[in-house]
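Team,

Forwarding the record for the chain on the shared tracking sheet. I've put the sequence and predicted structure together so nobody has to dig through attachments.
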Amino acid sequence: MVGAGFLRVPKRSPGKPVAMERGDGASQYPDRERIPLQTCFEVRTVFLALTLLSTGLGVAAEGPATGESGNAPTFQAGAPAVANAAGAAEQAFAEALSKNTIAAFEAFLTAHPDSREVPEARERIAWLREDADYTKARAADDEEGYRAFLRDHPGAVFREEVELRIKAIVDWKAQEQAKQRVSAEAAERRSELFKEASKLDTAAAYRLFLAAYPEGPEAQEAQRKLKDAEADDAAFAQAQTSEEGLRAYLAERPEGHNAADARSRLEALKVASAAASAPAVSSPSVAAFVEAKEKRTAAALEEFLAKYPDSTEAAEAREQLGWLREDVAYEKARSADTEEGYRSFLREHPNAVLRDEVQLRLNAIVDRKSRDQAAQQAQAEAEKRRREAYAAAEKLNTATAYGVFLAAYPDAPEGVEANRRMEAAQADDAAFAQAVQTEEDLRTYLATRPEGAHAAEARERLEAAKKAGPVAPPASALGFAEAQRAGTIQALESFLVAFPDSPEATEARSRIDRLREDAAYEKARAANDEDGYRAFLREHPRAALRGEVELRLNALEDSKARAAADARARAEAEQRRREAHEAAIKLDTAVGYAFFLAAYPDAPEAPEIQRRLEAARADDSAYAAAEGSEEGLKGYLAARPKGLHAKQAREGLLAIQNAASEGAFKEAVRIDTVAALESFLKAHPDSPRAPEARAALERRRKTSEPSGPPPGDATLPVLVASFVSAPPVSNGRADDRAWQSAQGLELPLSGGRGPRSIRLKAVHDGTNAYFLAQWSDSTRDTANRPWVWNAERRTYLQEKDRLDDGLLLLLFRGKVAAESFLRQPQGLEADAWLWRANVSEVSGLAEDGWQQMGAERFPKARAYPNPGGGRMWARYEPDAGSPAWNFYMPSGQQGPQVSSYRRAKTAGSRADVTAGGAWSAGVWTVEFARALDTRHTDDVALRVGGECNLAVGVFDRAEEAPDVISGIVRLELRGR
């Protein structure tokens, strides 16, 4: 029956959605061809109209114009009336079909309650209500709306699709709830960590919190508290070296972060002051303990405790040993930076000073693990929901089901298979949409797709068409069917030209719009770029494929953002690797190289670092084998004069040689003869005991000669330090009133390059002493080994030859002969204050230490050119405590030149002397200030009414030794 129309079966297959339009014109297969419900109704209307004509006029639609016997038609009594009534019902039903509204079918039922079309009319009302409710639920697109639809229409054709949409919404809600749960747990952990940091209330705690949560809601408060803590630490660092400073700190910050420590230190200083004023009691254990403390090693303290286990200093030694072991364990835990490492530290050191900081670091690691586990759990739950959603789509096995799955999980591993199945289902829908036009098409569909999704309905349609018999559809229906079969815009436009007002015209225009939309979509898909998808959305704002296009557009944007983030992350990782490489090279140790290789095993620098690591390990092994043996150390130095441990080897060798000469010296002193002392000096000319041996030899040779009085110092220049009530400020400006009234002293300077003279002034206020020095210098040198940016290598290089200017002030222990101290035969000791134009201006402090010097060599001394001629021997050691600056190596470009030093927190005797300097019009002005008596054994104490010898030296872009020096000056501190 080629080209003949057929009647759509009113019944729909249960459990399988029928691919047809609903009342709103939307389709449950929005991405491909849709079968218009209106077309099916129009075919039915044509069939009913033809039936009405045939029955109403008493003429058969087909067959001979005779009765069963072949005669003229025979009519039973009453037949015309019945036929007329049936014809009226058919005509009314046909009108209701053409309107296709609930109201039209309800009006038909009211007018014809007993007609044979009543069941179909009721069924169509149910369909229309179902379609209307489905459209309403889709518009709301929420779980409640879909569930209401299923309650009202439990047997709906769209039931499985609606259930799938409900599942997608439930899955999405579950994902959001999981995210919210993870976020809430993370927020709770972050809040707890902030509470712990606030409880500790230290700069380190706040830095740890900000490292873990740099952008949390508490970050701003943590930054503020961090600044407060750092300011408090700085104030405490300045105050902790003196009782006055600690009292001032507590007066200003009674509730400061370091208030408890300040009170404890103040009490300790009072005890130390009382002890210092008590008569000194000398004992071997005291000297041994001082020596062990100076070494600052666990081995030294353990050796002391083994020798003096019951001494009064033993308790303090054990305490310091515990601190050293705790520090070693802490550094080990910090290097590993693992949960087990921190837990092990807390088990072994439950009362450690750093316990709170370690606990905070441990909590941060546990928090990070908890977040990772929560994220993994959420991911596992999401994967389970995705698998269940795909199983549901497979069970439904429709294009819509796979489309819903792909929209919810666009990057799922099942995506390729789901897309293939969706395209197969869409192809089946399209084939069935073409087949519903004629019986021949239906047979073709069943022949090619006997197991197709619509096979059952196709068979039902064929059966219904056979029962209904042939119906000659109107020309417009045939033309529309032909245009549909062609499936092109040109065919549909030709149909509209021929039948502009036909019932099929609306659907034809709709199909043209869809074909144009599909063409635009395919063009955009072929280009697969942002511009193409955006153009599609502008031209087709209400397209059925809008959601998919937006999804693809978002995917492209996300991909671009991820690519940019990946590129940025790679660049940052590359920069970190280069910085780590530079740091490892600078450190030049096996540990440094091993750390680099552990972090960057595949780096391009790895072969070079591996080579350096093997060389460093070989050097370590050679030194370990040589350590402790004089011959071994000599062999190591001969083979590796510039080895990593060369300095340690030389010091170790000297210590061994000195130990060997100690016994010989004691024996020579015991014998106490010229021959014994001369024999010792001949065998051990470089022994630390050589100066004492020479002195003893000189005394022995002169036993018969009277020794005259030591040279006096009546001829020495005098620097007067007068009392002032308003002391000056150490800022290098010299404009304080105290300096205007102070007596000045112009001293000549001798030596190499540098000024020929220096002007000194001194004052005191009964508590502190203040010194002022001024000298000429045509250049202002304030850089000390700065970092300079190298544009070609894109890194900083250190200019090691650039040094700053400096001033050395020496306060001697005891009196010094009138001649230059550099020519004294015996070793001299002095309290040394060193101002440097670079590092002192960074910290506001002078380097405070003690200096030994003389014309003859002594232990640990180094030879220096003597500015006055010849050479001198000197040894410098910093006072107890930590330096006021740290070495700094910049990371990342910070300007053309960066200082190699940064200010550091300092403490102890090393932080006693404040200093400030300024250069103006070719003149340096430097000021010092220090307590008269610091109560520190490594400082020279000054007293009002007393005297002291001093000297100064000037550095002009030098470091090892002053370029020019002064003679000896007598300092007199006069009272009011």
